[in-house]
Amino acid sequence: MRRCAIIPATFCWLCLAGRAVGFDQSWTPAQETGSTTLPQASQPLSDIDQESTRQSLKDQLIGLLPPSVSEDLEVDVWGWIGALHTSDNDYWDGELSVGITKTFDQRVTLSAQGNFIDANGELRAELEQGYVSALLFPNSQTLLTVGKFNANFGVEARDFWNRRTGTTSLLFGAQPQDLVGAMLTQPLGDSGVKVRPFISADFQGQFNFDQPPSGGVMVEYRPSATWNMAVTNWIGPGFVVFGGKPLESPYSRDAYGTDADAVVENWQGPNIVGERAGTLYFFEAKTVWQTFPDLTISAEYLIGTTINASTGPWGWQGFMVLGDYDITNSLHTYGRFSYLDDDDWLITGSFQTRREVSVGFGYEIFDDVEVRGEYRHDFSNSHPDVDIVSVHLTFTH
User: Fold this and answer.
1) Distance, CA of 246 to CA of 249 (rounded, Å)
2) How many other C-beta atoms are found inside a 10 Å radius of the C-beta of residue 191?
């Protein structure tokens, strides 16, 4: 897990991304793969002039580039700042992200997203995404994506500003968030079904090529504009060796962080210390249903099993339920419960069954800037309970 701290306040002029829950989006190559361009919510007429001015400024800056570069070029900036308090510690966390997307004839998209993170005064940069998407056959909408890109397996979006909650659930760190490899997206006519076979270098989204690649398939079904569901199967090298020997307790605590730290330190998904060996089977299922115009219910289940002939099976499983309700156009509230059975300590580094309950709200304080407040309670069968109060600010431009 990774510590993150506040981004300097000079970035606060940037503005928030649109609503994260959206169902009917027109197709672009970037949107299929975890785009660096966020879907924008519908805007009231009173906002059009301000949005046009902001977009015009961006267009003017892009227009300074040669036409061959500026045409079909999109540049976006997002950010997140969070303050978290527990009975033992206080944390400041933040991230600034820049995404660049270039499309050629609506057939090929080049996209890159870089993150700049301030971790308690220790700055670092990372490449979150860097990929090319090609529309191979326009009539069948067959899309091929190659590079490093967001996996989009779970209910929770990869980035803070594209979610509706404050902290991440227990399932966020128990499944891949990024893929390094290739994914093919194939809609099956007008059935509402999309099939996405993929290969990936590593379960944890890293450039790890010392083992055969993993492979799998995601099948998504969207029966209506307000309901979608998906299942993902994965098979590849597992994690059953540590220090060249079969897994034995305990793992190094330095590799996983403390219980409270883990809530805010997980920026990239799994952080499994075990070296790759044996075979990993992973399954994830999710559904998002807008039951009423103002209420969205999401649910998710996952299970992972890593097997080695000398150690037998090791694994983890969990589920999550999330409800999000729009009180007004600017104010929403949410509640979440997540559960993680990590008795083999692969995900958290401890023998435990852990549960989390969170309630919070989000308020768009002015155009494209949202503040979120959250209360969270974590409890485990092997660790003391943890109460967390946090405040988050998300923005984009």
Assistant:
1) 10
2) 10
Contact in structure between 118 and 7 (CB atoms under 8 Å): yes
pLDDT over 90 (residue 320) = yes
Domains detected in the chain: 9-396 (2.40.160.10)
What backbone torsions phi and psi does residue 31 show, to the nearest 5 degrees? Answer: -65, -25
Residue 100 CA to residue 78 CA, distance in Å, equals: 12
Query: From CA 213, how far away is CA 234, in angstroms rounded?
Result: 11
Q: What's the rounded mean pLDDT across residues 227-252?
A: 78
**What is the average pLDDT across 8-16?**
33
The answer to whether the CB of 377 falls within 8 A of the CB of 386 is yes
Report CA-CA distances (Å) from 165 to 37, 314, 336, 362, 392.
20, 31, 9, 8, 9
The per-residue pLDDT for range 185-194, each reduced to its tens digit, is 999 999 999 9
Kindly report the average pLDDT of the chain as a whole number.
Answer: 81
Q: Average pLDDT, stretch 343-351?
A: 83
Alpha-carbon distance of 296 to 299, in angstroms, equals: 10
* Residue 72 backbone zone (phi > 0: left; psi -120 to 50: alpha; other: beta): left
User: Is pLDDT above 90 for 257?
Assistant: no
Contacts of 347 (CB under 8 A, 6+ apart): 173, 174, 270, 272, 316, 340
Identity at 26, one-letter amino acid code: S
Mean pLDDT, residues 211-223 taken together: 95
Of the pLDDT bands very low, low, confident and very high (cuts 50, 70, 90), residue 51 is very low
Closest residue by Cα to residue 211 from 282, 305, 277, 308 = 277
DSSP state of 190: T
Alpha-carbon distance 163 to 116, whole Å?
A: 19
Separation of alpha carbons 264 and 56, rounded Å: 36
Helix (H) or strand (E) holding 138: none
Phi then psi for residue 205, to 5 deg, are 70, 25
Question: How much is the average pLDDT of 58-72?
Answer: 71
Please state, in angstroms and rounded to a whole number, the distance separating the CA atoms of residues 4 and 330: 28
Evaluate whether 174 touches 340 at the Cβ level (below 8 Å).
yes
In 3D space, the residue among 130, 75, 131, 138 whose CA is nearest the CA of residue 107 turns out to be 138
Q: Write out the two tokens for 197.
A: 């076979």
The amino acid present at 214, given as its one-letter code, is S
